[in-house]
Amino acid sequence: MSYTGFDVERLRTFAVHLRRTGSSVGDLRRDVAAVLDDAERALRGRPATSSPALRRTQGFLPWGLPSSLAWSLPEVAGSIERRCDHLEACRVLFEDGHHVHAHLAFEDAPPPDATTVQDALDALRGLADLDAGINGNRDDLRRIADLLAGLTAAELDLFLDDASADDLRAFGDAVADTSDSGWSPFDHNGLPVGERIALASTLLSLAGPTHLDDVASAFPWMTPGFDTTDVFLDGANPQTGEDASGITYGVPEGPLFADGVSSTDVYQGRLGDCWFIASLAASTQMDPDLIARNIRENPNGTISVRLWDRDGTERWVTMTRELPLADDGTPLGAHGDGELWPAYYEKAFALLYEGDKGGAPDGKDGDPLYDRSEQGTYGALEWDWTEKAPPYVSGNESRGLDVSFEDVQSAFDSGSPVIVASSDDKDDVPEHLQAGYFGRHVYYVTEITDDHVLLANPWGDDYEPLRLTPAEFEAHFDSPQAIDLGGTP
Amino acid sequence: MTRLTVRPGIPYRLGEGDAAVALALKEVSDDPPVATVGVVRNRRTVEHELRLGDHVELAGLAWTVVRVEASPRPRVDLEAAT
């Protein structure tokens, strides 16, 4: 291995020049402003330039170019210097027989430390001999988790070079096993859902290209199962249990985003999770930037989505790009109009959601195949209530509203996305609404005035919104929730 | 032969381009076995009542209704020769 293409000395010299240029920007700005001031005096007060950029150099609080270079150039210089330090530390490690992947060698991160890596390896290898004591293994697992989460990308690469697949898998299994031994009231095992997902997400987001699969294999629960979803069960042979659904995990074609973000990008797929999709679409409509702030693509190709866990703690959930695909190769669940961000939002939610109390479609109540409490699967998302998803999407509890047109209007007008459920029976629905009305379904408000409300269907833009009078709304819908985006950073 | 099980609460998109439609189950009864489905084309939903053995054209394919059940769990199964 060699570091062809990186001349550290020249890079450091370049950083020095950037700092020097940044410190002289004030003089340049003052000179330009003085020329403009002189010219304006000569022009008896008329503007000397029509250029907004030049005009910004005048006054007591200059902003924009060139003034902004005074702080941006030193920032860039600092980043270059940190990357050079990192690269040189990687070179020393290489000479000692340790190999950091070239993609990770020029990171803007603290220089990798072999001792830190060895501490993490020792802790992982010690897991097998761990005497957890009467208080369970949670505190011991947290100690290992803290060591792993503290690794930089380069240190993680070194760690994964030496960690055995069996040790990693044993650790992954241990953190996911929160079962109680039953003989001690102080017994705490594994890590809570949000905590273990945060740990796995950190490692998945940092892993280099040669070790990403190792991390994914260590934490198989970061790939939510689909074999308890209705669409899968309908495809399984009831006698043999053999799958004939055609559903497989794979990487779908298409970009994460196309043409910006809009609520009309959100299409519910073949999962019965309208209660979540409606919350997502409603929030997107009210604040499209929410999505841009809450999804990022990592350098290794993984995708991270920000949600909030059961306790209201912010969690970036990192996933590989694989999704459950239908037999035609398209995402089985949520998707966009040629873009994939809703599918990853849904996958992240499937991983983090802890509110499934069972529940089943009509006629399957009590059937253990359908009606069971799940966590970390797509099956956990099927059939639930309007108040359950908003805290995960926004970080705040939603506000249950009376079935009152005025209350819904007031909430929507004050900036809260509103979702609402249709009643069970469509027989009493007026003729003009019947075609677009689907019972036991969650819709979201897209417009409301004094005389009507428009409800969009989370099934997607194929479906024309329902236009309802206040009386029709109050007669045929219930369980409205006002989603609180107020404190969402 | 393509078989499609239509369940409540889930949209089923069939076909592509001008032929594309979306199908969703609205109501099912057992006695007699009749299902009401909503078929969406160009954002307009049209209701159809389906009985066993009925033929319906969706997304350029001829489908036959082969199963209609309200209990133990609502479903309508369609088959199309492919």
The largest β sheet of chain B comes out as:
4 strands, antiparallel
Range of strand content of chain B? over 45%
Show unreliable segments of chain B. none
Number of helices of chain A: 17
Helix-residue proportion of chain A: 40-55%
Kindly state the number of beta strands of chain B.
Answer: 8
The radius of gyration computed from the alpha-carbon positions of chain B, rounded to a whole number of angstroms, is 12 Å
Largest interface: A-B, 30 and 25 residues
Structural class of chain B: mainly beta
Mean pLDDT of chain B: 90
* Strand order, largest beta sheet of chain A: 6-11-7-8-9-10
- Anisotropy-based shape of chain A: flat
SSE-based structural type of chain A:
alpha+beta
| Strand segment count of chain A | 11
Number of self-contained structural domains of chain A: 4
Question: What oligomeric state is this?
Answer: heterodimer
Q: What fraction, in percent, of the residue positions of chain B are helical?
A: under 10%
> Spans of chain A with pLDDT under 50 lasting ≥5 residues?
none
* Helix count, DSSP H or I runs of 4 or more residues of chain B: 0
Supply Rg of chain A.
28 Å
The helix/strand order of chain A is HHHHHHHHHHEHHEEEEHHEHEHEEEHE
